[in-house]
Design a protein that fits this description.
By secondary structure, this protein is mainly β. It is built from 3 helices and 28 strands. The protein folds into 3 domains: 171 residues, no CATH class; 55 residues, no CATH class; 79 residues, no CATH class.
Length: 405
């Protein structure tokens, strides 16, 4: 198994109290039994195994997507209230709550007396009990409060800067795009919800890893890629290491971001398929597009308006059918003549190709075949739904007449 390469990052020399930065396997995720007297745990299964699973969203924070990028058992903080947190299970996030008077400390993955926890989500008086310090105003980009004997005095960082709660200072940076147009709670940093000093992955590609470094000056997000050394160019959240690329290891790569501002919509319940990720779609909910994901091995079918098995599905034209594929060559979505196909590399990146004239692409054998076998193939392969010999003939005649003219 390929270990993450640290040599290019001098920050990794900074150690915790034991002198060694812990890997995810060393983290103690389940502290419920150790702090059972402090916890009022309300476990609610928020995501089942259905192919039409709803993503759990807290403003711009996609808890469901985040759970696919961390090791099973990892606890994530909430943006809605300081008492709530999530435990990432293999089936998705499960919510739990601290008892009254306690708040969840995501940095230590445990509940503690509220006065001892720096948390401001869902708090009506963020300066209560504080004097001579600054706390974030989570509703305003770059906003903060100066606490003067428990009284909150609002302020805002200069243009081009955001407020860093771990440093209690303004730092150079920008808020999420469209923040000023959104009333949502915004996850400004991935390190605001995931425990520090552990690695986690990304949902946009398989090689990327993230790490929240915690030291005396704050918490900092570090991002890197698994190198191609020994062909171990995929990050595996389960082991916290770089390993060989496979469908199982890279199943989290759906294109659904861990945090993004929702775009407004007008028709409640309207569904919009993704034209880039076949297993992803959005539903108009309360005036906002909410991203959702099909189960592993399923695509969103634009004809049936549900998630169905990959091979049978007719996904949105243009989406990458390398997702969940176990072959190097796969059909592209083509309702005309079934002649286009993708070459899928190890990272599921697609390169579009086209068969010679009067041939269609057969994914089952990974080759172009004569058109006389296309209609039988189309019946069981949704990517080519609508393709026919008639369309192929018409297209050839149109091209010929254009040349003659």
């Amino acid at each position: 198994m390929g270990k993450l390469q640290h040599q290019s990052f001098d920050y990794l020399s900074l150690a915790n109290t034991s002198g060694v930065i812990r890997s995810p396997r060393d983290q103690q995720y389940y502290q419920l039994t150790m702090t059972g007297k402090l916890l009022l745990v309300t476990i609610l299964c928020l995501m089942g195994g259905s192919a039409m699973g709803d993503d759990i969203m807290e403003g711009t924070y996609n808890v469901t997507a985040f759970c696919t990028a961390v090791k099973t058992g990892t606890q994530l903080g909430s943006l809605e209230t300081c008492q709530k947190y999530y435990v990432c299970q293999s089936t998705g996030p499960v919510v739990a709550e601290c008892q009254s008077g306690y708040s969840y400390d995501y940095k230590r993955s445990t509940c503690a007396v509220s006065s001892q926890v720096d948390c401001y989500y869902g708090v009506s008086e963020p300066c209560a009990g504080k004097n001579g310090t600054w706390v974030p105003n989570i509703a305003v980009c770059g906003g903060y409060y100066y606490c003067n004997n428990s009284i909150a005095m609002p302020g805002k960082c200069p243009s081009g800067q955001t407020f860093d709660s771990s440093k209690t200072a303004c730092v150079y940076g920008s808020c999420s795009s469209n923040l000023n147009e959104s009333n949502e709670t915004v996850l400004t940093s991935l390190c605001d919800v995931v425990p520090p000093n552990q690695y986690f992955g990304d949902t946009k590609d398989c090689k990327t890893w993230n790490y929240c470094l915690s030291n005396s000056t704050g918490v900092f997000l570090k991002t890197g890629n698994c190198s191609n050394t020994n062909n171990q160019d995929a990050y595996n959240p389960a082991t916290g290491q770089c390993t060989y690329n496979s469908t199982a290891v890279c199943s989290r790569v759906t294109g659904v971001p861990l945090s993004s501002v929702s775009v407004s919509c007008s028709t409640e319940g309207e569904i919009q398929a993704s034209d880039t990720v076949c297993g992803t779609y959005s539903v108009c909910t309360n005036g906002k597009w909410v991203a959702k994901s099909c189960d592993t091995g399923y695509y969103y079918d634009v004809r049936q308006k549900i998630c169905v098995l990959r091979q049978a599905a007719t996904p949105q034209a243009g989406c990458n059918r390398c997702q969940f594929a176990n072959k190097e060559f796969v059909n592209a979505v083509n309702s005309d003549n079934c002649s286009t196909y993708y070459y899928c590399n190890k990272n599921n990146e697609a390169t579009l190709n086209t068969c010679p004239e009067t041939y269609f692409f057969n994914e089952n054998i990974g080759a172009c075949k004569p058109d006389d076998g296309m209609e039988a193939y189309v019946k069981n392969n949704g990517a080519c739904y609508g393709s026919s010999l008639t369309k192929t003939t018409d297209s050839t005649e149109d091209e010929a007449s254009t040349v003659d003219a």
